[in-house]
Amino acid sequence: MSRSSSPSPASGLRPPAHPAVRTLALACVAAIAVTGCARGSTNDKNNDPGIEFSSDAELQGKLDVMGFNRDADEVASTRTDLAEEAIKPATLSAPAGELDTQQLLSAIAAGKAPDLIYINRDELGSMAARKAVMPLDTCIEGEGINTDDFRESALAQVTFDGNVYGVPEFNQVQIIMANAEMLNSAGLSVQDIDGSNPQLITDAAEKMMQHKNGKLSAIGYDPKLPEFLPLWAMGEGAALVSEDGRTALLNDPKVVSALEFGIDLYEKQDGFGTVKSLRDSADFFGKGNQFATNALGAMPMEQWYVNILNDVSPDTPMAFTTMKTSAGEPMSFGTGSAWAIPSGGDNPQAACRFLKTMTTTDTWLAASKARSDDRVKDQKPFTGLFTANRTADEQIKEQFVDTNDYLASPWAEAVEASYEANNHSFAIPALPADAQFKQAWLDAVNRVLSGNASVTDSLETAQDEAQRALDQAWSEWEANSQASSSEQ
C-alpha cells in the first residue's frame, strides 16, 4: 500500500490503516428537495418503487454495515453513536474491517447484500455502472439531506450519469510541506516550491538535495509520483478525463508536460530509484521521518500527515503552503470515502437515516469536540477535520481550531494551508471503469519511472487503454439501461 494512501475511515488527520469538476454534481442535485417523503420512480432493482424514504418514519429491523470500523477513534465512535441512536428502534451491526469489493459483489449476487457500505469514492462509479449500488436521489429527498452543504468536487465523485450514488464523507487533500531549515539554508521560501513556477521547484530541488560519500543523502523535492500525476497535471491546467467521464485526456500535451517535469525532477536527483530507496528507508510515521532527519527538503502530501509530524517530531522546523497552479491559484486533488446503499439490501431506509446522520453538520461538530477535547487534554493543537461537508468544516474551524491555545507556528500555517486546499479541491468524476482508468495512468507513470518507455509513448499507450475501457463500460451501461427501460 502506498504511504500516501488515505486515512482510515474515521481518522480525519490520523495515519492510514490501509479542470475541477463542478457542474455535473450541481446539475443533478439542483432539483432535489431537502424535506418530505420520497418514493422510487422505476421498477429497476436499483430503485424499487416500493422503497419509501421519510425523515419521520420509525425504522425497524437490523442495519448491516460493511467496510467501517466504529471504534477506529473518537471521531468514528462519536458519530456512530449518534447515527445508531437516530435509527432506533432499528439495531446496528457493523463488524470492523475494510470493504472487500469482490466479497460485496458476491454477497449481492447471492441475495445477501449488506444494507450500507463505506467505500472509496474512486470505486463508486464502477459499482453504480454494475448496478451494485442504488441511486440515492429519493433517499436524499425523503430524509432531507442538504446537498448544498457538500463540496461540489466531492459530489461529482459520487454522481454517475445524472444520479447521486453516494454521500461523501472525509475529503483528503494535499499541501506543500517543507523542512524550513533546509529552505532557509538554500536561500528559499515557500513561494519557490508551491508549484506556481515549476522551474523554481527544479532550482530548489537542486539547491536542497545533498550527497554524502557520493550517495544521495537528502532529497531536495519529491513530487510524489506516480500517485500525484492528477495534481501536477491540474497545475498545468489539464484534467485526466473529461468532465462527463467519457473521454480520456491522458495524452493531452499539458499532461505530457506535467509528467516530463516530474521525471526530470527525479533525474536531477540521481533518478527515481535512488529517491525512492531513500524515501522508503525513512521512519515515515515515527520520529525518524524524512523531515526530522533532514533527508527531505519538500514534497506535496495529504494534510493528515501534519498531525503525524506534530505528534512525533514537534520541534522539527517546518514550513507549509498550498499547492498552486501555474497561474498562481491554490488547488488540491480531492479524494476520500463515501456511504452507499447496495442493491438488494433489506433495510435501505435505516441505511439512509444512518448515512445522513454520519455526515450532517451537527454530527461532525460533536465528533470535532471529542477530538478537540482529547488534543487539549494532551496539550496539543487541534488541526481540524477535513470533510466533504463545507458547512461543517467552516464551523469546526471557527469553534474548535481557531480557539485552540496550542496551535502555534508553524502548525497554524499548516492548518490555514489545509483549509485553503480543501476549499480549492478538484476531483476525477465517477467513471464506469474507474479502476481500469486509474490503472492506465498509474502504469503509464511507472513505465517511465522504470525506464521502460518515454513519456509521450507511455501516455499514448495509457490513452488507448483508458479510452477502450471507458467506451466499453459506457456502452454496457447504456445497453443495460435501455433494456431496463424497455421492460418497464
TrEMBL record:
SUPFAM superfamilies for the chain: Periplasmic binding protein-like II
Region entry Disordered, spans: 460-488
Pfam families in the record: SBP_bac_1
Coiled-coil spans in chain: none
Biased composition (Polar residues): 478-488
PANTHER family: ARABINOSE-BINDING PROTEIN-RELATED (PTHR43649), DIACETYLCHITOBIOSE BINDING PROTEIN DASA (PTHR43649:SF12)
Protein name: Extracellular solute-binding protein
